Amino acid sequence: MSFYEYYSNYKNIEHEAFFKNLTEADILRTISKSKISELEFLALLSPLAANYLEDMARRAHQASLQHFGKTVLLYTPMYLANHCTNHCSYCTFSVANNISRHKLSLEEIDKEAKTISATGLKHILVLTGESRKDTPVSYITEAVKILKKYFDSISIEIYPLTEEEYKQLIDAGVDGLTIYQEVYNEKIYDQVHISGPKKDYHFRLDAPERACKAKIRSVNIGALLGLNDWRKEAFTTGLHANYLQSTYMDVETSVSLPRLRPHKGSFEQVVHVSDKDLVQIMLALKIFMPYLGITISTREKQELRNHLIPLGVTKMSAGVSTEVGGHSSCIDGDGQFEISDTRSVDEIRDAIRERGFQPVFKNWMQIT
């Protein structure tokens, strides 16, 4: 069974009618259970469950301690290029936006990597815009060969690949994949992806599974919160993560919870997602999937990120720039979006320690 077939069992649920029939006893009973079903996960995303966030937080905190201890892994993104062939309504890199386009040379990649490595980080997330012409797999492969000199773990956040292409990058040294479906609702997906290869909903939806089949070590998925009803998107994100974790038990599965941020272009957020909403999503996911990693990026302000640490966060970005060459300032260009938490790696390391947790710079290495 593919994920889409699994998802099809739940995609036509009338959420409002389901939420209307829930009782306080249903919510409290679900929070107390050691293992919950898909529909009980949906119950924890309901408006009624929002009245029990303290109970959910205690349960999520216990689950996170049990499976991850008091640790938070640190990483930073590194933008190789911002060329893109897609016209997406919500993204600065959209081909329709008039921005400065850049692509790092191999020498500039080395300089950028050396600058990031000096902060102590050993995990890196490599990003490009979605242009096979400007940033082909061969270019990314050469970049990875350079990055291996500086980092123990290299993840990618690029356009979706075939299984064979994922194998090619894994052989070069990539061990992690981040790819967001952006919005799981197929009608809205078609509306916000106006033109370009990204309009292919199913090719993108199946990308994490193709990477799993290619033997990637970790996958990180998510929806861009703000494009649709957040309860529906969070529910489908959980279903997707649960499918991957259950089907590919040797792959480390995690979820990010990105909210729309200011960017170039005229698109405005469709659905407001509050801090409280974000917390409810995170807690419901952690109770549904205790083994699930949770990534919170610098899209969120520092106060919120600090408060979320004990509630199940397993991975945080630090010392972030969303510009091509932004760490070494070798190019002056436009960032993909405005970040909220501008703290350095040292400042975030200290903030994690102040809350009694251990900042982790390296938790994996490739043995050849």
From TrEMBL:
Keywords: 4Fe-4S, Iron, Iron-sulfur, Lyase, Metal-binding, S-adenosyl-L-methionine
Top enzyme category: lyase
Residues in Radical SAM core domain copies: 67-292
Cofactor(s) essential for the protein: [4Fe-4S] cluster; [2Fe-2S] cluster
EC number: 4.1.99.19
Gene3D superfamilies (alphabetical): Aldolase class I (3.20.20.70)
Name assigned to this protein: 2-iminoacetate synthase (ThiH)
Organism name: Candidatus Syntrophocurvum alkaliphilum
Taxonomy of the source species: Bacteria, Bacillati, Bacillota, Clostridia, Eubacteriales
